[in-house]
Amino acid sequence: MARMSVYDPFAEVFPEIFRGLLQPARPASGEALEARIEVSETPTQYVVAAELAGVRKEDISVQIDGNRVSISAEARRETEKREGERVLRSERYYGTLARTFALANEVDEQTAQARLDNGILTLTLPKKLAPAARKLTIQ
Predict the structure, then answer these.
(1) In the chain, what are the helix, strand and coil shares in percent, each to the nearest 5?
(2) Which of 9, 23, 64, 115 could link 109 by a cystine bridge, Cβ 3.0 to 4.6 Å?
(3) What are phi and psi of 120, to 5 degrees?
């Protein structure tokens, strides 16, 4: 008996595109996940909000170099095991979260502030004042 099948021309061309579409993002060994951020700007400063749920403030590092900002955090979500209990499935993440981005203006790192509240790291990053234009006198 002959078997019939439907020919799908896209199955051969695009098999990898949709394969991981509904799967959660998981880092490969040694890679860091990116922290989700929101950046807003006023004429004098930037305000950055980064999602770092479950991370202690002691485990967060923020570095500013000119207009480049780097946020990294060590996520340690440990569970307490009870005697006679067995973990059947654990979807908790252990590792590092990291994000580096560049802003349009340089940041005044001396007056920058950071605050962690309910898993949201808020950075207040004042813009560095550009040197004022100077008029030269001709002698």
Answers:
(1) 5, 35, 60
(2) 64
(3) -115, 120
Q: Whole-angstrom Cα distance, residue 76 to residue 56? A: 9
Write the Ramachandran bin of 99: left for phi over 0, alpha for psi from -120 to 50, otherwise beta. beta
pTM: 0.64
The residue range of the domain holding 111 is: 33-77+92-129
Strand order of the sheet with strand 60-65? 33-34, 95-102, 68-75, 60-65
Q: Is residue 72 part of a domain?
A: yes
Q: Classify residue 136: in a domain, yes or no.
A: no
Closest of 28, 31, 29, 39 to residue 97, by C-alpha? 31
- Distance in angstroms (rounded) separating the CA atoms of residues 129 and 107: 9
Cα–Cα distance measured from residue 111 to residue 127, given in angstroms and rounded to the nearest whole number? 9
Domain count, the chain: 1
> CA distances (Å), 116 to each of 43, 44, 94, 107, in order?
24, 22, 20, 20
Cα 62 to Cα 112: distance, rounded to the nearest angstrom: 11
Non-local (6+) Cβ contacts of 53 within 8 A are 119
